[in-house]
Give the backbone structure.
Amino acid sequence: MSERNEPVSPAAGAAAESAIRRIKLEHKALACVLGAMQALVARSRDPGATPDIGLLEAMLRYVENVPDRLHHPREDQVLFPAMRRSPGAGRDLVGELEREHARGAPMLAELRRALGALRGKEANALNQLATAVDEFAEFYWWHMRKEEQQLLPLALRQLDAEDWQRVDSAFGDNADPLFGAELTEEYRQLYQRIAELAPRSLRALLESGAGTGGV
């Protein structure tokens, strides 16, 4: 995800800086999980390899329980309405992003179905899962880049300090259970496996913020 720091206007204040940091850290977390899922599926194609269905299930459960049920609703319920209330050019972009959020549910359902097919040892199941993981990952990387490169700079120009206080409060209410400071043993083990599996470029995201404190 983008490492560029957008200038924060005096009207936006510290809350804007905090909110944007939280949003980008949550994006980093999802990017790392998706990269690790792709790597794990690729390893499953090696001769003699047995797919680690339990680990794939844990990664998918994370995507279902954190980005889809925490991150996106906070955008839909707090950040996006603030952009709609603000005079400016953000309304059309917000509409696009909301429609993209809605596309996530059927894509997650397809991932869940493909993983079930692999568990059931159905024909061609690994290829189906690989396709579903790749499509989901590419879609969300593209979506998150749009948010970071288009939405957040626009929000910095349009939202005032009160808006940013609400956004920062919303994103601060829930720490990411995988990349937060206090990890349960289940998530600690999952984090370690993701750190091992993630490609080098995504592993740098872990080291630069996610996993070193609350998001």
